[in-house]
Design a protein that fits this description.
The protein contains 31 helices and 14 strands. By secondary structure, the protein is an alpha/beta fold. A hairpin with a 2-residue loop joins β1 and β2 (8-9).
Length: 665
Amino acid sequence: METDILGVPEQVFDSGLLVATRRFETASAVARELGAHTVEVAHTLIALARIDGGRACGLFARQGIPPDVLAAGLLGGGGPAAGTAAGASGNGRGAGALGGLPVTADLRAGFAAAADTGYVDERALLAELLPRLEPGAVDLLVGYGRVDLDAWRAEVAAARPAAEVCRADGSIDEAAFAPGARRVLAMMVAEASGLGRRQCGIAMLLHALATTPGGLLEQAFLFLRRDVRALREQTIALTGARVRGPAVSGPIPPDEPLRQTLRRAATFAASGPDPDPDTGARITERDLLAALLDTPSGLAAAFFRDIGLDLERLRRFADTYYREPTEPEPDRPDTPMSPEEAVRRLRAGLIGQESVVERLAFHVELIKRSLARGFRPDDRPRAALLLCGPSGSGKTMTARLLAEVVYGSQDDVLVFEMGQFSARESINNFIGAPPGYVGFGEGKLTNGLRDNPRRVFLFDEVEKADARVLDALLRLLDEGRIGDPAGPVREAHDAVVILTTNLGAIHSAAEAVEDDVDSVDNLIGSILAEGSTGHTAASARLRRTMEGFFRPEFLNRVDEVILYSPFGPTELRGIAENGLTRLAARLRDQLGVALTWTDEAADHIATVAWRGRPEEAARGVNRCVTAVVPGVLRLLDEADAAGRPIGAVRVRVVAGALVVGGADD
């Protein structure tokens, strides 16, 4: 049942203020102590001033006046008879009474005005009560205490108000938080969603602080030489993660205790030094920890004490050593690529793989249009593609280009070298281990989904993985989620899953005789040679080849198998141009040097790669491009040593070799 204090809903008040004043019954206690029949503004001011460390206490202390001096001056002042105060109620509760005594109209008006700010902490209440002090109290403070009331009022009014932490719909307003705290809140919501929680509580915030990679608690525990993994396991137990419900989609609001804790963190942020002039005092990770330790329920403080952590050392680390993340969040294009632009970008990046681009076009359009509208065709990942082809044919580049056109950056790729998960026990590194075992909370897949589920997950050379790892991957492809032994269910509904394989490297002799191919290169070549009329038969042979490594139910959960053709000299020449262009951009951005090249230089790189590194394909071309770099740096060093710095270099072919010289040479 919702309760009010002088007509103001209790949840609007700072929880610490309610505890310190016993729901303002200390104000009625002051009135009784002074022989008054009505609770006045001055009585409430005295009650606030008796809170050690509070704002009112600080005002009196700086003036050198104990609050009891004001109380002594008001002693025996009486006041209106009980029940005669404007709007008073004699039942001891409700809008007109405190602790069984009626209140004055000015006191009730002050509470109402403070409530209009949306959050009543001590600062907001003082800002409304000081201008409403009764004349007798004003005379005592000004006449005997030499208090400059105008200065007090100005100081309280000028104090930065605490940021509002929640929106009108009850969800957390991320704009009120600094980047480090936003990471923690995102982690909290992700963990709560995976556990099937409908609301986030204080325990979930504590768990998020403990599990945020590189966060305040992780750094503090390493600094204090405590076991971070044990901390995470204990916070998992604290959240009740052993009992999981179905994952929840959409925003997850905080419950009332957590809302009060976040408001308390906002109060700490508002009282800190040097706020950002544009964004105000944003709540930091340090403020979140301080609010947890100072929360009246005492959950976090009791938790740390129970595990034997020195709270003073923890606070000292947070205040002295920890630095909040200040790096800007990754830039994203202001206007996302249209599906047509995305296909053009794929075509420009995947030289010599026109058929691959055509097969990808459908998936790119479906993913981009459905993501833009928040539509989910099913609960599986947005796409699950098996890329099959020889090494160096562009499979990894495809994953990076898909990340760029779908999510905005080629960095939005998490790569799994599946050869690292070939042992039976590697499942503990893939999805994490149960509590008490090595690898608890350290699964690369589960933590990757936890940290950012909206990206490309690339499983390279997937045929090398252990059967248990493939079983876990099968569930991801089938349900778009996977259980984390650390507790939550991790969702991949907005992820793109890319699997790559090069079956030619381990093609069995029996299948080679049966299919008359000894490598995946020949298999793909036969498919391309047969054209559309033979495509069905060739695809069936490819499927039989893959079924030697993958179970049918695994292949059935892949949306499409896409074949990559080996590169010829023409394609390698285009790849060389792309590689030189990327190198030129890096030299321009990092060294301020312009790089150009002749057509013969690009032809030479492609020819060398074709003749000397045919098995490396595109990777061989990129290594040849990288071989240009030492010559560029040597030329720059020689020019600087001669006192003639140069701003442009050119790559040419001289006597059958690449030569780097000045742009005018």
